[in-house]
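Hi Y.,

Following your request, here is the sequence exactly as I used it, all 230 residues.
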Amino acid sequence: MSRSDRLLELIQFLRTRRRPVAGAQLADEFGVSLRTIYRDIQTLIARGAPIDGEAGVGYVLRPGFTVPPLMFSREEIEALALGSQMVARSADAALTKAARNALAKITAVLPAERSDEANASGVLAGPVRWIGAEIVDMAPVRDAIRQESKLWIHYRDEAGVLTERRIWPILLTFCATVRLLAAWCELREGYRQFRTDRIVAFTETGEAYPRRRHALVKEWREIEGLPEPA
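Below is the corresponding structure, written out as tokens. Let me know if you'd prefer a different format.
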């Protein structure tokens, strides 16, 4: 690839990493010498990219740096179009609308000759057949997750037994045929995953978690044997 393309890809690569990335790893990723990576990093910093780090330690891009959507590759636009379709078929009404609006904003600022790439994409998300329909609106549940607030839920298990539980919702997982709400359950004193179609009702308690959600998610991932995001 050209140097300008490599600089853009280098920024995008660092944007997806939360921890410093060694120069040697970057050199291997892009198939160039370590010296070239050092020069590229200095060029990006000179152009205003907020990159922290140094040779022998690694590099990390500080949050908040954005790249204009018109720099998206054809494959990235296809991925966004596919993701938007999948959200529209799998999420609640609010997220579905948000996904479509986001894709519309991206395509609106693309150059004229590329504006139809999302609509002309060669990928398509198939229909989703849910096992059970949700009774409650999940948008307030997502709000509770963002605000790190407890919920009081009425939950019906597989045998039809109804229980009431105070939970700390931490993640909403979209699976092939069901959605699962991962939470700390005060009744069971442990992490549980609740099928959202079995939540009969819920009440927002207004109480905050006693611990930060980030720490809870990290602990839950370790218990479930799931790797941390790159």
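The chain has seven helices and seven strands.

Thanks again,
Q.
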